Amino acid sequence: MRANIILEDATVIEGKSFGASGTILGELVFNTSMTGYQEILTDPSYAGQIVTMTYPLIGNYGINSSDVESEKIQVSGFVVKEFAGIPNHWECEKTIEQYLKENNIIGVYGVDTRMLTKKIRTKGAMRCMIVTGEINQEQVKDFVESVNSYVFPKNIVAGVSTDKVLFHKGKGKKIGILDLGLKKGIVKQFLNLECDVIVFPHNTTAEIILESKVDALLLSNGPGDPKDAVIPIETTKKLLGKIPILGICLGHQILALALGADTYKLKFGHRGANHPVIEIKTNRVYMSSQNHGYAVDANNIPKDMEITHVNINDQTVEGISNEKLNAYSVQFHPEEGPGPEDAHYLFAEWLKKLERLGE
User: Fold this and answer.
1) What's the start-to-end Cα distance of the chain, in Å?
2) Which of 50, 71, 171, 195 is such that its CA lies 20 to 30 A from the CA of 128?
3) Any catalytic annotation for residue 249?
4) 343, 286 Cβ separation under 8 angstroms
5) How far is Cα 337 from Cα 312, in angstroms, rounded to an integer?
6) Which DSSP category does 63 fall into?
7) CA angle 235, 236, 238 (to 5 degrees)
8) Bridge partners of 6?
9) How far is the CA of 223 from the CAs of 27, 203, 217, 226, 328, in angstroms?
10) Could you give the 3-state DSSP secondary structure of residue 183?
11) Which helix (H) or strand (E) segment is 307 a member of?
């Protein structure tokens, strides 16, 4: 079946559909990862977005039940150059086309994804509509109007956060996680370090978190504009200085806002598994997994806040700290999923800081 990608600048790109059929609106972005498409599809940070993969062949090792970052596909749509109809891997349980159909997600293939990526790099992340089936010129006009009137949801975090407290039993430090769109990989990292983990809904109050007697709080990754996450920002402000805090991705941006810094939207964001980040204190470079469309403004850093990591490609802020308040965060994903494992050390290092605080 034909599939049509309609962009806000009235560009219509014709491809073929796989997965579900229908119509979907979203923000069009690209990811440069060569593998890890299953983790990308299920990452809650992509909620509301239509993802284009720059690597030309997607689905060649199929889908399994272990390499997921949440309970369902989170992207709104998926665009590839070519998908593998006959995957080959010993863990494969189904094809990517079956997976998209089961989750009612529209996929498009047979598209020049390099051209589409270059367009996004030039014009920035774009509002987009995917329509399956034949369309005519009159319909295109109506579709373009719909695309240009589309507004990215402001309550997107509420849609991907848990609605109840979740417990993961461990033997070590009791780590609370504020779920803003939490990836399973983050929980796995703490469980591997034998931590006791409590996951809180995004709108949990500071009082409830403190009453839980957690040793520290992690602000998770998640989708959307950090300034729209009003409740988590206020909760973080109330917790600063009362409990150690670590932020990842959206959590990094929320911590920065709570500390008095500012954030802004990047032109096309950082999405991929190959982004070099330098740790300023050690001058060591790490390859990192990233998925974000916003960044902390380096020109508006409060005096008590220190920049700890910087993106080598564009010098954007990749890490901050406030030693006095025991607050730290990184923009990249140290848990990877997909991507390199260079930054796994950050979890163990944070736990060592917590141990020193308890001495």
Assistant:
1) 64
2) 71
3) yes
4) yes
5) 21
6) B
7) 65
8) 12, 129
9) 12, 15, 19, 8, 20
10) coil
11) strand 306-311
63 is written with which tokens?
């889908």
> Given the DSSP bridges, would you call strands 306-311 and 317-322 parallel, antiparallel or unpaired?
antiparallel
Residue 304 pLDDT greater than 70, yes or no: yes
Estimate to the nearest angstrom the gap between the alpha carbon of 340 and the chain centroid.
16
CA–CA distance, 215 with 194 (Å, rounded to integer): 14
Task: Please identify which of the residues 27, 39, 69, 335 carries the catalytic annotation.
Answer: 335
Out of 252, 275, 292, 333, which one is annotated catalytic? 333
User: 107, 79 in Cβ contact below 8 A?
Assistant: yes
Assess whether 335 carries a catalytic annotation: yes
**324 exposure class (CB count in 10 Å sphere: 0-12, 13-18, 19+):** exposed
Q: How confident is the model at residue 358 (pLDDT cuts 50, 70, 90)?
A: confident
Distances (CA, A) of 331 to 17, 122, 187: 34, 23, 17
Which pairing describes strands 126-132 and 82-83: parallel, antiparallel, or unpaired?
unpaired
Instruction: Pull the structure tokens for residue 117.
Output: 């990526």
Q: Is 343 helix (H, G, I), strand (E, B) or coil?
A: helix
Of 27, 128, 249, 270, which residue is the catalytic one? 249
Instruction: Please answer whether residues 212 and 234 qualify as being in contact, where contact means their C-beta atoms are separated by less than 8 angstroms.
Output: no
Cα separation of 196 and 200, whole Å? 13
Is the whole model's pTM more than 0.90, yes or no? yes
Give the percent of the chain with pLDDT over 70.
100
Span 152-174, average pLDDT: 96
Q: Give the distance, in angstroms, between the CA of residue 262 and the centroid of all CA atoms in the same chain.
A: 19
Amino acid code (one letter) for 9? D
How many alpha carbons lie under 13 Å from residue 121 in its C-beta half-sphere? 11
